[in-house]
């Protein structure tokens, strides 16, 4: 083995996160410790002159040599990201493993092993939502490029029943994630508030004839839009008030920008206790959330929403009286 080959092998071992000693290297490559120290010195000098994001370290107590990546994440950060990612159930197992391995590569091997063990149970029991049947990462990458290049698209879109498709043309303007799924905001030239689930696109092609442009005044504030969305974005935007007998923080956390409405103790007692909360969201999602809260909620206004809740509850009750 030549000097160059030996130095390259040592460098590869260091890149793998191994902590090396001069004695062990001398034995492995059948050279003197002086030769090994000279090799390590050459590596140190090369790293100092390069723009590689690694720090060369020598521990005098343990007599070990190691490399530390400057752009590594903290192990606890990777643990938090993986736990959140698993909780979303958005990706199929193959893509989940791919993302997990890429994140684990950003921390030291010993820490990566510990984080992997802390996630092994939840990963083994992982069950993705239906969107996980499709590869989402390539779609995310492709739509990101189309958004950046402002590319108008012709596409087919699968309805929720899985049997019907519609052909449309639109300009993708943003991506976001909410409640298990990735969504694409599209602009069709008239209504900029059209949202599609990423996994339901089929037969997507850049449109050669029609080029849509979004006027600045019609661009969406993505953050504000997401804050008004609960599972469904259909219907008109509505500001509604409701009396809530559950933990107030549960509702306030679930509904961005919601707030408690001041009320005297006398008034609260007279109305059965609880608190009054005001929120702003899209009507369909609002109705869905209200119905999910059972007996812990009573909508106070607007009257139109109160009526829709009554109708939905009556229809539900009728199904059990048949």
What attributes characterize this protein structure?
single chain, 322 residues, alpha+beta, Arc Repressor Mutant, subunit A, SH3 type barrels, 4 domains, four-stranded antiparallel β-sheet, 12 helices, 44% helix, elongated
Question: What's a concise summary of this model?
Answer:
Residues 140-205 form the WYL domain. The chain is α+β, with helices and mostly antiparallel strands and 322 residues long.
Radius of gyration: 28 Å
State the domain count.
4
Report the portion of residues in β strands.
15-25%
**Count of DSSP strands:** 12
Query: Can you tell me the CATH architecture of the largest domain?
Result: Roll
Q: What is the class of the largest domain in the CATH system? A: Mainly Beta
Q: How many alpha or pi helices?
A: 12
- Report the order of strands and helices: HEHHEEHHHHEEEEEHEHEHEHEH
Main β sheet profile: 5 strands, antiparallel
| Structure classification | alpha+beta
- Poorly predicted spans: none
Q: Widest sheet: strand order?
A: 7-6-5-4-8
CATH T-level fold name of the largest domain: SH3 type barrels
Distance between the termini: 85 Å
Residue share in helix: 40-55%
**How would the global form be characterised?**
elongated
Mean pLDDT: 86
